[in-house]
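User: Structure with flavin-adenine dinucleotide, tokens only please.
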Amino acid sequence: MKLVQQWDAIVIGAGIGGLVAATQLARRGAKVLVLEKYLIPGGSAGYFERNGYRFDVGASMIFGFGSQGTTNLLTRALATVDQKLETIPDPVQVHYHLPGGKQVRVHRDYEQFLTELTHLFPHEKLGIRRFYDECWRVFHYLNSIELLSLEEPRYLLRVFVQNPGACLGLASYLPWNVGPIARKYIRDPELLKFIDLECYIWSVVPAEQTPMINAGMVFSDRHYGGIRYPKGGVGQIAQKLVEGLQKYGGEIRYKSRVTRILLERGRAVGVELATGQTYRAKRIISNATRWDTFGLLLPNIPPAEQRWRRRYQPSPSFLSLHLGVKATALPATTDCHHVLLDDWRAMTDPYQTLFVSIPTLLDPDLAPPGYHIIHAFTPCWLSDWEHLSPKDYERQKEAKASQVIERLESLFPGLDHDLDYMEVGTPRTHRRFLGRMDGTYGPIPRRVLPGLLTMPFNRTSIPGLYCVGDSTFPGQGLNAVAFSGFACAHRVATDLGL
Ligand SMILES: Cc1cc2nc3c(=O)[nH]c(=O)nc-3n(C[C@H](O)[C@H](O)[C@H](O)COP(=O)(O)OP(=O)(O)OC[C@H]3O[C@@H](n4cnc5c(N)ncnc54)[C@H](O)[C@@H]3O)c2cc1C
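Assistant:
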């Protein structure tokens, strides 16, 4: 007797990429099941609560919540399933604390940002404007076309007919990285280092390896749709997507760890959970990283994936401090997001670039009255944290956390005294709770690659199996994985004939 396939699509993982794919499919009438190993949705955009504080586990500088154009993908993803979030605009994307005591704030207002940067590098006035204006050009191309699956020829033809200029423009930037474009306009080595840092804080690689398409998006949307923080915390995005999924007949099951993708005659037909339970579907979508999908859920690594691994490697993970502090610890004019770097040469070294987010400056309800939350994190490798006895692990956590607090004291003198709560996460924490190999932030190029040309789309070499999320085009970040979710759902819906 033939088994009835109950689901059109199973999505492994409820990160933002997986949930956007699931909701888009459900909205088109597909029967969708999401299987999430953790207790709540969101993955790297999830949250946890301790002692009256609500902490974001990762992301808190959120793009894609604008109201105009086509690149506001988080707004659009929620709207597709009739959801909306109140968001709080952030007047400054990031406040840089640079080597030599220099400071720059990236204001929401483009001209204000250029003026502040030009004040530090007056001899590069023209170069600064020309470089960032070229990023705007990429953004305007992106923001004028519907963003769906580049693996769908009829869609490609349709957008080309509608807007040939934007399509040709984007195609011309696809193979480019930021480095050569910045060097066309800028000579000052320190300013070029600053452009490296501008890329590194979201791509975790310098300008030479950061695709121009992504930079066009990030360097412009911060002044267009702006950076906006969801009221109630970043976890609200996933919660609302789940509400929307359920409204359109989709299902989500938590504490459901997929251990195997089931193949029949080489085709993905279902999944098996750690409990032994199996589910079958016409299409399987993995929101786990590519390293977890191929290697863990599927033991054999196909040649296409081996090629991908030769091009991309896992980025470092993070040491994360989640702090609850008395409000008196923060000067009145403090910005929400900071990046600290003491030595340009050390930008990509472990424990050097320090990221700081204080979301309670935008939404005070995430902490008890009179207190703030601070998330301070810095890249580091899992290998530093493995093979330690429980005692040594705790000791190392304490030592590294003290170093971070000491650096934070340079911004917030007396912070240590005003500390009310501290939780320290390591790459082991990221690996365990986010289900990501080595706790990695995501894939980074092993060498200089031709922009985004080599980043894979959603189909894989296994028929019936798709990937979604940050190890697919166009990469890391919530708005980027939302793009991947839209594209994946579009491709799967087309394949299902929906
Ligand atoms: C510290 C930190 C700070 C960041 N800051 C920002 C920021 O400010 N702005 C921004 O835009 N981005 C930021 N990011 C990046 C952003 O959070 C990620 O790129 C994005 O959330 C990744 O989404 P995803 O859907 O690809 O996957 P994930 O978020 O990794 O979700 C995958 C989901 O799949 C589940 N899963 C995995 N394997 C299985 C399995 N076998 N069975 C069942 N479920 C499984 C996981 O539990 C998880 O819920 C940050 C990330 C980190 C770690």
